[in-house]
Write a structure and sequence with these properties.
The protein is α+β, with helices and mostly antiparallel strands. Helices cover 46% and strands 14% of the residues. The chain has 12 helices and 10 strands.
Length: 286
């Protein structure tokens, strides 16, 4: 695969929210960016989108979810009438609940109107309200749109039982606030201490003050994945950030991200991204 065709894009990093529509071109080359995107698909017989290694043929009012750092392209679609929402990764990372929701849905990239008509109806109403506020240019439009973005994520989370089969989720969260606070502390600790000597599930359960088995069950229910998979995802997020520093060696990137060896780093990276860290790094180099 020719990765030289991939490009990196970022909107003003001082903004938490952006929106656009009205593009005349029907295609857009493979690229990635540090912010996430939500696309409300426009009308037309052909709407082809690609995310990572998967291609999706969609219809009007389907939603496309592109999470930060994912490679994606518009192969052939009505971009003139599609609505694109962009939100910064820093905004998502500012709240544990937003992080949790993103982690749960990380492998879900389309919400189809034919499969989830009522949910799509609710989400579309929120998005159209965003559009109304954003394009009036009113005071506090970014704040208002971010509040609606949080509502979008909240509605998605409230209806996640619709995706329980494909995401392997339990359909309820019975845990008390005290337990949830402990989990927040643990996940924040991990993100800020990826080079710590012991980030094992047992050690984190001890930090949370609960048994290892209980920790495992809670963690899977909150994040939608087991602990080791989540930890690797966090390490990969750190690694993709560090890869943008051209003078940092691959060994430094791997070690500062918490990987214990280059082979382990390469294997986990390739499984997730479909390419080596070196190939991915070319996307960051100007």
């Amino acid at each position: 695969m020719d990765y030289s065709k991939y490009e990196r894009y970022d909107f003003d990093n001082r903004s938490a929210f952006n929106m656009y529509t009205g593009n005349k071109e029907r295609s857009y080359q493979m690229h990635w960016h540090s912010y996430g995107e939500i696309i409300l698909v426009g009308p037309g017989e052909t709407n082809l989108y690609r995310i990572n290694r998967n291609t999706y043929s969609l219809v009007e009012d389907d939603f496309v979810l592109v999470w930060p750092m994912e490679t994606h392209a518009v192969i052939d679609a009505n971009r003139r009438d599609a609505l694109v929402i962009q939100f910064s990764n820093a905004f998502v990372n500012s709240l544990f609940d937003l992080q949790r929701i993103m982690h749960i849905y990380r492998n879900l990239h389309v919400i189809c109107v034919n499969s989830h008509p009522e949910l799509v109806k609710k989400l579309k109403a929120i998005v159209l309200k965003m559009k109304e506020i954003f394009y009036t240019g009113q005071t506090n439009r970014e704040l208002e749109c971010c509040m609606l973005l949080m509502e979008f994520m909240k509605v998605l989370d409230e209806n996640r039982e619709e995706f329980a089969g494909e995401l392997s989720l339990e359909t309820h969260n019975p845990y008390e606030d005290d337990v949830m606070r402990r989990m927040v502390l643990v996940t924040d600790y991990i993100k800020n201490n990826l080079t710590a000597d012991d980030l094992s599930q047992g050690a984190m359960a001890q930090m949370a003050g609960i048994s290892r088995d209980y920790f495992s069950r809670i963690f899977k229910n909150i994040t939608g994945m087991n602990y080791s998979k989540w930890l690797n995802m966090i390490r990969l997020e750190k690694a993709t950030e560090l890869l943008s520093h051209k003078n940092m060696s691959m060994t430094e990137v791997a070690m500062l991200s918490g990987f214990q060896s280059i082979p382990s780093f390469n294997r986990v990276f390739h499984e997730d991204k479909g390419m080596s860290p070196g190939e991915y790094r070319t996307l960051f180099v100007d």
